Structure to design on (221 residues):
């Protein structure tokens, strides 16, 4: 059974990168206002980038997470599949609970009659449930599950970078503010890590029940 300290040691490359990302992200939030931080991170737009982020942002969509779960089931990676599904569902429920309880206008409504922001017809949404970003929550939950399960820990950085880019896509498309993305990212990271620890404990207990001599032999040695 993997404990929290062991989990950090076994995945130190990933968690050090996560700590640096969170430290940098929350420092940025402290040093900028909600409006200025958004405008600072999205000053440049092109048609090519618009098309790229319109499609890339779907990596944080729930349907993508479900597709990954189905693919893992077909590959008979059942433990990882259930972890990804559990992390997606729990992080989504937590994010939705915050959305329902916190009044937070999306950039399109926040900046109305104020600064110019880049709007994309049919993509940029209205609304008052901006915090947290559900796409960021799902993307970081999925990235964390894959990173912790991966045997090649160098791939964990690729998963993290992919999730960070999903988070940035939400800002680029004027769907969310940086604080929304950081909130969603934190929820996804924490949820997926806790799910991993729970599943590891559950599978360890199941193994002991199937083979009760394992625990006795461990103590005897």
């Amino acid at each position: 059974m993997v404990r929290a300290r062991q989990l950090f040691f076994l995945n130190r490359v990933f968690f050090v990168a996560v700590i640096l990302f969170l430290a940098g992200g929350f420092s940025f939030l402290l040093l900028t206002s909600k409006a200025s931080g958004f405008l600072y991170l999205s000053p440049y737009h092109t048609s090519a980038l618009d098309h790229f982020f319109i499609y890339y942002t779907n990596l944080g969509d729930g349907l993508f997470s479900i597709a990954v779960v189905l693919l893992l089931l077909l590959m008979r990676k059942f433990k990882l599949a259930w972890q990804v599904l559990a992390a997606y569902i729990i992080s989504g429920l937590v994010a939705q609970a915050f959305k329902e309880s916190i009044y937070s206008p999306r950039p399109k409504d926040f900046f109305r009659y104020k600064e110019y922001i880049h709007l994309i017809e049919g993509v940029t949404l209205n609304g008052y449930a901006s915090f947290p970003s559900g796409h960021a929550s799902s993307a970081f939950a999925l990235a964390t599950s894959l990173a912790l399960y991966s045997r090649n820990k160098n791939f964990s950085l690729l998963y993290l970078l992919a999730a960070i880019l999903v988070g940035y896509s939400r800002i680029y498309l004027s769907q969310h503010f940086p604080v929304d993305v950081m909130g969603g990212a934190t929820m996804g990271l924490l949820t997926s890590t806790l799910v991993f620890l729970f599943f590891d404990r559950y599978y360890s207990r199941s193994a002991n029940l199937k083979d009760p001599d394992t625990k006795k032999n461990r103590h005897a040695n």
Residues 178-210 form the longest helix (33 residues).
